[in-house]
Amino acid sequence: MSSSRSPWSKRSLTAQAMGHVDPLTKAVVPPIHVATTYIRDEDNAYSSGFVYGRPDNATIREAEGVLAMLEEAEAGALLFSSGMAAATAVFQALDPGDHIVASKVMYWALRSWLMTEAVRWGLKVDFVETDNLDALREAVKPGQTKLVWIETPSNPLWTITDIAGAAEIAHAAGARLAVDSTTASPIHTRPLNLGADIVMHAATKVLNGHSDVVAGALAGAKADAFWARVVNIRKMQGAILGPFEAYLLMRGMRTLHVRTAAQAKSALDLAQRFSAHPKVARVLYPGLPQHPGHDVAARQMENGFGYMLSIQVSDGEAAAIRTAARVGLWKRATSLGGVESLIEHRASVEGPGTPCPPDLLRLSTGIEDVEDLYRDLDEALRG
């Protein structure tokens, strides 16, 4: 079932996990299928459609169906054992010698992989500030560039890349456009509708929303030969998500609309208030009119501007680290998108070569009372 063939909205379909009812028990919660092998028919065929647990699983199909519906993905969706497994599968589907253009500001682990492991695969990678379409256009090499990879909003500076503009540039050069839309989620942005070929999510984050599943996801615009290659990579490398994790992910997605609405509202409130705070030099959040990417974000995002923001502390790096040490309600932890609000000094995590300013604190807004969140961080900033 998809929203285009249903009278119900995406929110309603997501809340009910596509309206699935277990045919055996009539349960409204889909069961967890943990089998690794399946009975053949008498003619040696597999009429059930399932052969073995490494490439496929019924519970995983259920969760993939929800995500494909949300992203309006004609090729469907694929769940992986982590966001890194999902992202690297796209690059592994390229050929040695292929050229890649990627966002300069992006998830640090993937940037590190591209600078090290991708080179060993024979791939050529250039990093560029993709929020500058002129710079992107100059970096793309017609006939050589096979993939443009952008992250928007980009972690942790929350720069905004024009997806439609990037797609036009990529396609004109004969390349595909892949978008890491982890921090936007399909509630705020649907890259495939803006011209992207593939969208990636670190599903560990807001898609799951409860900080208890490590997962990754891809959704494809078209079931072409490249998408088939990605599907085969997941199958042969055994990078599929486990059925219990898929069940938890599907459970998390059922509340995605209400969680993201609350988180985006609180994030905007905090961004506005900390913009005037005497201990904050700068707030980075695309929902603020003064943000350089605000106009593009307003055009390609809906239902708010997401749940992530960063603040730069007026008194520098040491003060930022002390602030993170003083909070009580905010939790000092890596990751983002969960129901609990997290704070992190990113430069310490990313290490040498990070584009992250040393005075920056990354904030992932949860669903707590926004007044409590403000008071806790305000007191920590003031010492």
From TrEMBL:
Entries under InterPro entries matching the protein: Cys/Met-Metab_PyrdxlP-dep_enz, PyrdxlP-dep_Trfase, PyrdxlP-dep_Trfase_major, PyrdxlP-dep_Trfase_small
Entry superkingdom: Bacteria
Molecular functions per Gene Ontology: transaminase activity
Keywords, sorted A to Z: Aminotransferase, Pyridoxal phosphate, Transferase
One protein family per Pfam: Cys_Met_Meta_PP
Cofactor entry: pyridoxal 5'-phosphate
Keyword Transferase applies: yes
Family classification: Belongs to the trans-sulfuration enzymes family.
Name the UniProt record assigns to this protein: Aminotransferase class V-fold PLP-dependent enzyme
